TrEMBL record:
GO CC terms of this entry: mitochondrial inner membrane
Keyword DNA-binding: no
Gene label: Letm1_1
Statement: the UniProt record of this protein carries the keyword Membrane: yes
Broad class of the protein's primary localization: mitochondrion
Official protein name in the record: LETM1 protein
Length: 132
């Protein structure tokens, strides 16, 4: 069924609250990592990726805040998200968007694997013809 307007607004507010809360937590963790880097410790690959993602999220937050601060501009947010899908920080993504990204990555990997298999099969045929 269709949800009432009040429920939709409450869900959106909860979504933004949770997104800002997660971004705050990521920022605190990233600050600790930067502190460790400044004191000569080495980050793991996973920590480095998380630090880069958090920094990118903080840079994406600047244009996103314009939509939150300027009155009634949040109504234009879906239009801008269609034009610039990577504009939102990662903590604000919905589950459906995450699943869609994973499906795209999986399809790309499958296409690459298929291409590599065909290439190897062709090279094997060519080598067999050369030696035979």
């Amino acid at each position: 069924g269709k949800k009432p307007l009040r429920q939709k607004i409450v869900e959106e507010l909860k979504h933004y609250y949770n997104g800002f809360h997660l971004l705050w937590i990521d920022t605190k963790v990233a600050a600790r990592m930067v502190w460790r880097l400044l004191h000569g410790q080495v980050l793991t690959r996973r920590e480095r990726r998380r630090l880069l993602r958090t920094c990118a999220d903080l840079f994406r937050l600047v244009p996103f805040l314009v939509f939150v601060i300027v009155p009634f501009m949040e109504f234009l947010l879906p239009v801008f998200l269609k034009l610039f899908p990577e504009m939102l920080p990662s903590t604000f993504e919905t589950e459906s968007k995450k699943e869609e990204k994973q499906k795209k990555k999986l399809n790309a990997k499958l296409e690459l694997a298929k291409f590599l298999q065909e290439t190897i099969a062709e090279m094997a045929k060519r080598n067999k013809a050369d030696t035979g």
